[in-house]
Each structure stands twice: as C-alpha cells, then as structure tokens.
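During the reporting period the student researcher (J.K.) took over the structure-prediction task from the postdoctoral fellow and processed the backlog of single-chain submissions. One of the processed entries is reproduced below for the supervisory committee.
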Amino acid sequence: MAQHAGTELDNLIGGGLGHLVNGVRNAIFAALERELAPLELTSAQFIVIIAAMRGRARTVNEFCEFAGIDAGPMSRLLDRLEAKDIVRRTRGSVDRRQVNVELTSKGSALYPQVMDIIARVNRQFLGGFSPAEATQLQVFLQRLLANCDAALPPR
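J.K. obtained the following structure tokens:
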C-alpha cells in the first residue's frame, strides 16, 4: 500500500497535479462561459465585474494584476465592456496617466446575476461532496496557494 501511495505522489509531483488543477480550472471556466452567455458576458469579463464590486481593483493596472493578464488584452476587454455600457474609464484626478475603471449602473445590476451563476456552477462542481469534504478541498487548495506564494520570489 505504501508503494502505491508513493507512486501516486510521484505522479502528482511529475506533472499530474498541474494537469488536474488546470483541467478543473478549464472545466469551471467553460461552465461559466455557458451560464454567462445569456448575459452576453464571458468568463474573462465577469472577473472585472467581481473585482470592481468587491473593491479588489480600481485602476486598469489593478485589474490586470487581479485577472493575471497583460495591459493590451485588458484594454481590449475593457473596450468591449465599455461598448456594452458595463464599465466606464476615467482619468485620475491627481495623476492623469492613471486610468480608473468603475461599473456603470448596468454593470452594478449584473453583479447579483453573476454571483448566482457562480454559485450555481460551484454547486455543480461540488456535487457529491459532503460539506466537510468541500471544506477540506478548500483548505487543501489554500495550502497549495500558500506553498506557491512561499516558492515564488517577491515582486
């Protein structure tokens, strides 16, 4: 039995872990894409709504960091959201080089719908998990993230 466990751990260390995590991430985002389609939002666009409503990002640079994408793709994403009247970009009052992003009333109104979709997708992916197992999964994922933070050099 111990030999079998070591083999499974070796598989995870050898790339299986990244493959599994990436597969789950891709499946979650694909499910979100399907569910967000009636709102005419993509999974990338909903991240802007979430970040703005939760106060996690205010400037274009903060949105780039939050979403983990470069300024060029973020600018195009914001162009699309601005064309849909979901966000508005304004220049900073102190530093005109700074571009602030805020939700319009339409964008703010989408937040509860987006949150309902996220909850529905998360419930689907946690189907068959007991509350204790779901909590344990969250703890394990948080530990993985903490290990990542510890392994990465400071920015």
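The committee noted the following: The beta strands are 87-91, 99-103.
J.K. will present the remaining backlog at the next meeting.
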